[in-house]
């Protein structure tokens, strides 16, 4: 509204200057010079406004370009971050799988020799009391020969599952090799271990699997040995193995303890 009024006022001034009847007026020349100076200043002001508008437009374009570059860089970094996270998760998963493969038996999922030997070394180092038990499935070779190794593997998995369920949380059950299992009974003396092992043997005798139309169950022999303070774990293992051999020689389906 003000611009419209200003334009109307300037038009009146221009009309007065151009009117011939005012040519001799004392203020005519001064008003004409003032009007011309105003018009020149308006042109300069408009030029400055145009320059400012162009600068602001260029600045906005530059800002938009910078913002677009930033967004592209940000998206690229986010993509790289997702790829890196996925790669790290894959590495962690592979490491866990490698650790599992190096410390657990692939068939039964039980700890293997390496892991239980590490636990044994730690128990000896910490001077903790424990009893070792070697379990052996009686006449396992006969099952493999009569029914095949697939049935034998099924039986090993069933026995392993039963052992894992029956033992205490702080005990360790490992597949020692073939049809043998090694139990690390923590904070347990020979008498307590004998009770635990007899209960385990009764539990394992109830485990059955099917081979064709036949139900298969087994008995186990066990050799127990309580660790002696200061004794290397290898020596304790040898004593447990001797106790197992005596149990098998005595007719199997029994547990015997080595003298403490």
Automatic annotation (TrEMBL):
| GO biological process per UniProt | cell adhesion involved in single-species biofilm formation; negative regulation of bacterial-type flagellum-dependent cell motility
Signal peptide span per the entry? none
What SUPFAM superfamilies would the database entry show?
Nucleotide cyclase
Q: Which domain of life is it from?
A: Bacteria
Q: What is its EC number?
A: 2.7.7.65
One example of the protein's molecular function in GO is: diguanylate cyclase activity
Against Gene3D superfamilies, the record matches this protein to: 3.30.70.270
- In this chain the GGDEF domain maps to 128-260
Q: Does the keyword Nucleotidyltransferase apply?
A: yes
Cofactor names: Mg(2+)
In the UniProt record, which is one GO cellular component term? plasma membrane
Pfam families reported for this sequence:
GGDEF
This protein's record includes keyword Nucleotidyltransferase: yes
Keywords assigned by UniProt, alphabetized: Nucleotidyltransferase, Transferase
Please give the catalytic activity noted in the UniProt record: 2 GTP = 3',3'-c-di-GMP + 2 diphosphate
Q: State the name under which the record lists this protein.
A: diguanylate cyclase
Species name:
Halomonas chromatireducens
Gene responsible for this protein = ydeH
